[in-house]
Structures are given as structure tokens and as C-alpha cells.
Design a protein that fits this description.
This protein is of the alpha/beta class. Helix content is 31%, strand content 13%. It contains five helices and five strands. The chain has a five-stranded parallel sheet with strand order 1-5-4-2-3. The longest helix has 14 residues, at 19-32. The chain starts with 18 loop residues before the first helix and ends in a 22-residue tail after the last helix.
């Protein structure tokens, strides 16, 4: 009887990290990211010390933003444009979607200015997909990116 060969595994081609190394990695990731559900719950509960920052253009902000969010476009961040912010607060940056890195760039700039920062994963797109409220001219619940018909 021929030996049974085990099929190749793309998942295991690179072995998983040892548990303690994986734990450190995931804690580090959580220290710089948050999700819509956790942010919404903290905002709903009135948790102090959290400031939401929409880093998109003023036009995009006017159309739709997370209630209470400040509009500080990523490219305008500087000591003077952030002077009114408290460095003890945690700033939560967001932009359009997972395909947009504006909030990552803004988080890097804000960190360099001495702020504590987390990035909202999924941006406004996933905030809306979760069904959370927005402010602005766009109708509540309207998709950020409408579905395209198949070609």
C-alpha cells in the first residue's frame, strides 16, 4: 500500500507564532485600533476622554459623519490645527473605508504631535454598515459606496 501524502497547506506554510508572541502582537494591534461597535457603545455611554476625528474633506464631512466627530482633514494636521485638543484624550481617527489610509496617515501625524490615537477600522463605511447613526446631508443608512450592477 503506497504511503498517504498530506496535501500542502498554504495556511501552515508559515508556522503560527508561539502563543506568547501572538498575544503580544494582538495586544499591540488592539492598542492602535478600535471597531465601530466598541466606539458606538462608548459614545452612547458618554465615556469621557474619547474624541472622534473625521480626517476626510470638509465636503465629505458635511455629507455624513459620526455624530460629535470633529473634522480635521489629514493633510491639515499640525500643532496649530490641533492646539485646541487635549493630549490626555484618546483620538479616534477615521476616513472612508478599509480601502482608505487617510486615517492611518492622520493617526501617525497625531502621534508625532504627542496625541494618544486609535484608528477606527472600517471607517465611515463600516460605521454605516453596522447601522449606527450619522449626521449630515446623506440619508440615514444610505450605503457609502452603492452596489454596482454586475457587468
Amino acid at each position: 500500500m503506497p504511503p498517504v501524502s498530506t496535501p500542502f497547506s498554504f495556511v501552515l506554510e508559515t508556522p503560527p507564532a508561539p502563543p506568547e508572541e501572538a498575544r503580544r502582537h494582538f495586544l499591540a494591534k488592539l492598542s492602535v485600533e478600535t471597531d465601530s461597535a466598541d466606539l458606538h457603545l462608548d459614545l452612547e455611554r458618554g465615556k469621557p476622554g474619547i474624541v472622534v476625528v473625521d480626517v476626510r474633506s470638509p465636503e465629505a464631512y458635511a455629507e455624513r459623519h459620526i455624530p460629535g466627530a470633529l473634522n480635521l482633514p489629514a493633510r491639515t494636521l499640525s500643532e496649530s490645527t490641533t492646539a485646541h485638543l487635549n493630549k490626555q484624550d484618546v483620538l479616534i481617527t477615521y476616513c472612508w473605508s478599509p480601502g482608505c489610509n487617510g486615517s492611518t496617515k492622520a493617526a501617525a501625524r497625531l502621534s508625532a504631535l504627542g496625541f494618544r490615537v486609535k484608528e477606527l477600522i472600517g471607517g465611515i463605511e463600516y460605521w454605516v454598515k453596522e447601522g449606527f447613526p450619522t449626521q449630515g446631508t446623506a440619508p440615514q443608512g444610505q450605503a457609502v459606496y452603492p452596489e454596482r450592477p454586475p457587468r
